[in-house]
């Protein structure tokens, strides 16, 4: 029997990329089509490379504009065009647009009417510089494309800012006081209603009207707590609807799983307490948590990971969870048929 695509993906050897960054690299993200790779570093730059046959090609383009280490980059959905956001210790978020050809996307020029506020390198220009935070911006995440061009930014000043691009070319900003002693991570819940694969995405009324997309995100901070926020249409502001506790130290990352229409929602959190929790929610029921058991070489003497867990990321199908640990390895966990998560592979840099 031929190996499955998942098995092939797990067995492929890592392919190194020479980025020419002059300091530590903090994040690397492929765009929607896997044709461009963005990296960011403590050298205060963002670099963008073309990807051909799974390998980075050429010297890439260098985007300069930050005055401190750049912690994270995030690609917008291609329907908005080739748009990249970056977040930095300098307290700024910069949104970049590639005006050149060969971007590998077919999206419309959403931001064309806004114009550029500064030059990048090559075809990249700066279309927005968001500087309303008073401390490091640690995490950024684009909302599901169904919600429009919306970006959430989590900062050490304790706030999450939500930037929304309006049709008139302006940006609206909502500030959410999320975690008083600092916010480290933010992630959007999929806009698709849980269970839509089984029931169809309808509101269930007599007319069969289509339900509104979910407008909800999770934030995590130095208070060891995950908070889930929802946009209240009545109050026209973001309100806290749920709070999840279970970690005993700073939470470094939080991420929702893609929703493929099944009735269960998944959320993963990584912490300085050296644990990863996978939270599940069936329909409108409560969230329940499962602690990953690293096992093997990943485990320390106390059954936790050997070092701080910095980042988590679900696969597109949601059944594989990648865990990035301070020991320099990435561990891949897969959900079993009984609901448990097993470590199926580990990758060393």
From TrEMBL:
Pfam families linked to this entry: WD40
InterPro entries hit by this protein: Sec13/Seh1_fam, WD40/YVTN_repeat-like_dom_sf, WD40_repeat_dom_sf, WD40_rpt
One MF annotation (Gene Ontology) recorded for this entry: structural molecule activity
GO cellular component, one term: endoplasmic reticulum membrane
PROSITE patterns attached to this UniProt entry: WD_REPEATS_2 (PS50082), WD_REPEATS_REGION (PS50294)
Membrane-spanning parts: none
WD repeats (start-end): 63-97, 244-279
Membrane topology (UniProt): Peripheral membrane protein
Keywords: Cytoplasmic vesicle, Endoplasmic reticulum, ER-Golgi transport, Membrane, mRNA transport, Nuclear pore complex, Nucleus, Protein transport, Repeat, Translocation, Transport, WD repeat
Biological process according to GO: COPII-coated vesicle budding; mRNA transport; positive regulation of TOR signaling; protein exit from endoplasmic reticulum; protein import into nucleus
Gene3D superfamilies: YVTN repeat-like/Quinoprotein amine dehydrogenase
Compartments where found: Cytoplasmic vesicle, COPII-coated vesicle membrane; Endoplasmic reticulum membrane; Nucleus, Nuclear pore complex
Family note: Belongs to the WD repeat SEC13 family.
Role noted for this protein: Component of the coat protein complex II (COPII) which promotes the formation of transport vesicles from the endoplasmic reticulum (ER). The coat has two main functions, the physical deformation of the endoplasmic reticulum membrane into vesicles and the selection of cargo molecules. It also functions as a component of the nuclear pore complex (NPC). NPC components, collectively referred to as nucleoporins (NUPs), can play the role of both NPC structural components and of docking or interaction partners for transiently associated nuclear transport factors.
Protein name per the record: Putative SEC13-protein transport protein
Organism: Acaromyces ingoldii
């Amino acid at each position: 029997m031929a190996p499955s695509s998942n098995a092939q993906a797990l067995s492929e050897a890592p392919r190194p990329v020479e980025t020419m960054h002059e300091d530590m690299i903090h994040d690397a993200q492929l765009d929607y089509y896997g044709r461009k790779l963005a990296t960011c570093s403590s050298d205060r730059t963002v670099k963008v490379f073309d990807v051909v046959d799974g390998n980075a090609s050429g010297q890439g383009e260098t985007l300069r504009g930050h005055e401190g280490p750049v912690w994270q980059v995030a690609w917008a959905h291609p329907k908005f065009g080739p748009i990249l956001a970056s977040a930095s210790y300098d307290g700024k978020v910069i949104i970049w647009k590639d005006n050149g050809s060969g971007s590998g996307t077919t999206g419309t020029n959403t931001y064309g009417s806004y114009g550029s506020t500064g030059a990048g390198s090559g075809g990249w220009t700066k279309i927005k510089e968001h500087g309303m935070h008073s401390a490091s911006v640690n995490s950024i995440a684009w909302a599901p494309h169904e919600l429009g061009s919306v970006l959430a930014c989590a900062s050490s000043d304790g706030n999450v800012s939500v930037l929304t691009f309006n049709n008139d070319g302006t940006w609206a900003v909502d500030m959410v006081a999320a975690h008083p002693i600092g916010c480290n991570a933010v992630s959007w819940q999929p806009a698709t209603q849980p269970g839509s694969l089984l029931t169809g995405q309808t509101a269930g009324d007599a007319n069969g009207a289509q339900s509104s997309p979910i407008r909800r995100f999770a934030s995590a901070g130095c208070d060891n707590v995950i908070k889930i926020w929802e946009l209240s249409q009545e109050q026209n502001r973001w309100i806290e609807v749920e709070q999840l506790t279970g970690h005993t130290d700073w939470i470094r990352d939080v991420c929702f799983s893609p929703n493929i229409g099944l009735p269960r929602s998944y959320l993963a959190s990584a912490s300085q307490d050296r644990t990863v929790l996978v939270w599940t929610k069936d329909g409108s029921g409560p969230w329940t948590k499962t602690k990953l058991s690293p096992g093997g070489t990943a485990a320390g003497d106390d059954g936790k990971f050997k070092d701080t867990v910095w980042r988590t990321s679900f696969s597109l199908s949601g059944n594989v969870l990648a865990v990035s640990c301070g020991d320099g390895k990435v561990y891949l966990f897969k959900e079993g048929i009984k609901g448990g998560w097993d470590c199926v592979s580990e990758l060393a840099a």
